[in-house]
Write a structure and sequence with these properties.
Length: 305
């Protein structure tokens, strides 16, 4: 049994109203694997970096017990780099630089020790790379979760639609759900998207929480009101990692456990935004996580006389 996470391991340079950073470690697989590691101790990553990614950059993975055999290091090449500046509302941002570097020709190699995984998280990458990863597994995992974004809907929609036929859970935000479905109503959007292949759909609504759809069932999860959000980068990836990490821990896939997994994923995402980059998410205690989950429970707990 194991959880395999494929995605980017990269460098980011971030500017928000609270300050700015030079190059720091980021990437979908980074945030997701760190989040998942708090729940599941057999987390493995597949990603690619250049030789500018140093041993000390890898040490955070190893400290969390994350298997990095699938992390390719390309000699003489540079890691993927993204720079962005967030606006005052922290919901919108401008991309200042995108350097694909090693990601331009990323070929996802699945180590032999990763075969037989029960859980697979396909982090935000090209739909073709996501599908190739599934096809290279000798046995289909019992749960495949896919995260994607509007960019792939713009430039690789057909590939994305083919990949969606192979997954169990899709996680996207509300704008992406509307774009993918052509429907403004999220209920109607969910109905259309669930016909594309996934059994479960998670629609993230940022500071307004998240929705889970499955067949005729709907669950609405709250968002934790935070006084300050320092850096939203990686929040969605932390959510996905916490979500699938919790499901791997409990080992049973059903609607009720999915609901709980959304709360745990939301808790990890709420930690992520409190500091720049991975600073907060890589230094959590189990007590902090348990307390944060209780806060989420209290947000929507009530009695009617």
């Amino acid at each position: 049994m194991s959880l395999v996470i494929i995605g980017t391991v990269a460098f980011d340079a971030i500017e928000t109203p609270f300050g700015k950073t030079d190059k720091i470690v980021g990437g979908a697989a980074t945030y997701a694997s760190l989040a998942a590691s708090y729940f599941y101790d057999k987390t493995k990553i597949i990603a690619v970096v250049g030789d500018d990614f140093h041993k000390e950059d890898i040490s955070d993975f190893e400290k969390h017990g994350i298997d990095v055999e699938g992390l390719q290091i390309k000699e003489g090449e540079k890691s993927f780099f993204w720079a962005g500046k967030y606006h005052n509302d922290m919901n919108s941002r401008d991309t200042l630089a995108t350097e694909l570097n090693v990601l331009a020709d990323f070929d996802p190699i699945v180590p032999a020790s990763y075969q037989g995984c029960d859980y697979l998280l396909l982090g935000n990458l090209t739909p073709q790379v996501q599908r190739t990863t599934i096809e290279r597994l000798e046995k289909r995992p019992k749960l495949i979760v896919l995260d994607t974004m509007n960019f792939w809907m713009d430039v690789a929609l057909n590939d994305l639609l083919e990949t969606l036929k192979l997954v169990d859970v899709l996680t996207i935000n509300d704008a992406e759900a509307r774009q993918l479905s052509g429907e403004y109503s999220l209920v109607k959007a969910a109905k259309k998207i669930l016909q594309m292949g996934p059994q479960y759909l998670i629609i993230k609504k940022g500071e307004h929480g998240a929705l889970l759809f499955h067949e005729d069932k709907v669950f609405s999860a709250p968002a934790l009101p935070l006084a300050e959000v320092f850096d939203p980068t990686g929040a969605g990836d932390s959510f996905a990692g916490g979500f699938i990490g919790y499901l791997a821990k409990v080992g049973t896939i059903n609607f009720n456990n999915m609901k709980n997994a959304i709360i745990f994923g939301s808790a990890l995402a709420s930690f992520c935004v409190e500091k720049f980059g991975t600073e907060r998410i890589k230094n959590l205690s189990q007590e902090e996580i348990a307390d944060r989950v209780k806060q989420f429970i209290n947000l929507s707990s009530f009695e009617i006389a």
